[in-house]
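Model it.
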Amino acid sequence: MKDMNDYANDLYSLKYDGTWKIKSKNNYDLELEHKKTKSSLIVKHKKLDDSYIDTKLEVIITDIMKSIELQNESFLIISEDKNENGYSYLYENDNEQVLITVIKKDTNLFIVYYNALFENFDIVLDSVEEIIDSMILK
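Modeled.
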């Protein structure tokens, strides 16, 4: 079994293996960097207005993704999926792929970005999925 590192703050916790290192952390945002491939996994937190506390993610996901796509116009969507973690979207451009996972709990929105060059994306993907699956929202 792999040695796992723990990261936690007031809103969530997660586990990551030794192939990753913390590149930066700020408030509730976290950036991990894969040591060998330099791929990145970023967890961004956004506090929603209190009126969204009972709003299901599927009601606001379209607006969230439109906002993300406007900021990343060079990327084309390849696939989308709804799963137990929330919603996942795969994008690519000429030389890299980005997997975006959106998770909501109460008024806390978490957007997880996994970004890698084409040749590294699938190599690191299992590890990324383990990290996302390990997330516990508090």
